[in-house]
What we know:
Elements: E1 23-26, E2 31-34, E3 39-42, H1 47-55, E4 57-58, H2 63-66, E5 91-92, E6 96-97, E7 100-105, E8 110-118, E9 125-132, E10 143-149, E11 154-159, E12 164-166, H3 182-196, H4 216-222, E13 231-233, H5 235-243
Antiparallel strand pairs: 1-2, 3-9, 4-7, 5-6, 7-8, 8-9, 10-11, 10-13, 11-12
Helix pairs in contact: 3-4, 3-5, 4-5
Amino acid sequence: xxxxxxxxxxxxxxxxxxxxxxxxxxxxxxxxxxxxxxxxxxxxxxxxxxxxxxxxxxxxxxxxxxxxxxxxxxxxxxxxxxxxxxxxxxxxxxxxxxxxxxxxxxxxxxxxxxxxxxxxxxxxxxxxxxxxxxxxxxxxxxxxxxxxxxxxxxxxxxxxxxxxxxxxxxxxxxxxxxxxxxxxxxxxxxxxxxxxxxxxxxxxxxxxxxxxxxxxxxxxxxxxxxxxxxxxxxxxxxxxxxxx
Length: 244
């Protein structure tokens, strides 16, 4: 049977003016991934990470989860943890484990994959979480706090209603602070757009020019040691940084 083209349906509402996730595929070459969304890897726990993990819902692996692991690890998503099945293909030497567990962030519908790494004997026993950042907050969400989480190395945003979200991020635009470079520049660019819009622009880079320069004072702060400690910053706090 020859291929029959079919009409496609968007995975988001174009009229809403936002998208939490955009999937990119090239079936001919076996390429699947996120077209726009940035990714984060979470290895160190913090109170913010614990809060975020607490709302994740366990689920069976689906197509989106497969984009968060290497292609040769996709089958491993379906193997049980050694704690649940000592004969699982993920079990190593009786007590070690190399399994994966899959989750969904119910607030944004984004996939999350946790990788378990436990050595034989249990000297090392850790979980690393890999997730996509949203491209924006939800349509009715309002900015309340920008959070620098030193312990986990992540950046968060909290809404007026108290929802904690990974800071919206476009693919390839990783955030950073405390040094002179692209990460702090990207963070300063995000803050500058937020301030210029009166707190309304919470999306990732989007249509903004990739060579747009952040506010010099905001960039100087983002590059300084002052931006490395854990802190929650209101719109007024950020405006004070911009005003010097």
